[in-house]
Write a structure and sequence with these properties.
single chain; about 290 residues; Beta-galactosidase, Chain A, domain 5; eight-stranded antiparallel β-sheet; 21 strands; binds 6-O-phosphono-beta-D-tagatofuranose
């Protein structure tokens, strides 16, 4: 089960057919092909806009962008020079090693450490590692954040895996989010966007423009539609974001025509409040995506 090294990207190839493609740019997984159970037909499980810019000049519209150290527009004093969703998804990571290649799974590690480019917008010590693991019907992505031992202060950050799951948006239902507190970013006023709501639906759809930040979520989600279902399990990510722009997607320059009908973003993250690491300490946020049907 080899790992193919191509210019600027890695391809993980499973002997039974599944594959994943990871750009060094942003450590962005841009493709994951896996069969449904009982079938050998490989299906693309992630959405990647046909208008996505892949030359390293802009965050990728699709796949699994890595969001660090801030989610959304920066608010923390350490983050005020950053762009939306931070610098991890727009930095070039380095291949560190093949972690596992045993015929059952293949796993690679990419690293991101401070660079002169990052130092222009962020001056805190950090070390990131990202481990991508491909198995027969599963893809795992683990983000490791370390505040180096020599650092003289705590590291405060947010993190999220901005996963674009390929699915017919008009048919999708996400469970279990009922009774969770959430913040609705589609509200017109900042005050309304900061006012907690409670989810009353047993099955959440994205038939309309949806941008919901669920706090203290169960870290185990089912994303289902007519013919398919995907399980998303998280660890270390206490919140989850559900996003689909609907017709608002027409305003997104690198969104293909009608692209918003082809995905739902289910994004495990720690985005309400900040994680804090003392010098020498680490944190791991993990997402395991499994094809169920
Ligand atoms: O995760 C949802 C979200 O924060 C939305 O508000 C929308 O901005 C989306 O991320 C995409 O952000 P981007 O910076 O990639 O255009």
């Amino acid at each position: 089960m080899p790992v193919h090294h191509l210019p600027g990207k890695l391809i993980l190839q499973h002997p039974e057919g599944p594959s994943a493609e990871v750009l060094l740019y942003g450590a962005t997984v841009v493709s994951w092909k896996s069969p449904s159970h009982g079938s050998t037909e490989l299906k693309e499980r992630l959405f990647l806009s046909s208008k996505a810019i892949l030359d390293g000049s802009k965050a990728v519209r699709g796949g699994i962008p890595v969001v660090f150290p801030c989610f959304g527009a920066p608010q923390h004093p350490d983050h005020m020079k950053l762009s939306q969703h931070g610098f991890a998804r727009t930095s070039t990571w380095k291949f560190h090693k093949t972690v596992l290649d045993n015929g059952v799974g293949v796993s690679i590690q990419l690293d991101l450490h401070p660079t002169p480019e990052i130092a222009k917008v962020y001056n805190k010590p950090f070390q990131l590692s990202y481990v991508v693991t491909l198995a027969g019907h599963q893809l795992s992505t683990d983000l490791h954040v370390t505040n180096p031992a020599g650092s003289d202060a705590s590291l405060e950050f947010q993190a999220l895996l901005h996963t674009y799951l390929a699915a017919p948006a008009s048919e999708v239902g996400i469970t279990p989010l009922e009774n969770l507190k959430f913040y609705d970013k589609t509200e017109a006023s900042e005050e309304a966007r900061q006012t907690a709501k409670v989810e009353t639906r047993s099955v959440v759809d994205v038939g309309n423009y949806t941008d919901s930040v669920y706090e203290d979520a169960p870290q185990n989600y089912m994303v289902s539609w007519g013919s398919g279902s995907i399980n998303v399990r998280a660890k270390g990510f206490k919140d989850v974001v559900v996003w689909n722009p609907g017709e608002e997607g027409k305003k997104i320059g690198d969104m293909e025509d009608g692209g918003w009908n082809k995905y739902v973003c289910v994004e495990p993250g720690h985005v309400r409040g900040y994680l804090e690491l003392a010098p020498g300490h680490s944190w791991i946020g993990q997402q395991v995506i499994t094809v169920k049907a």
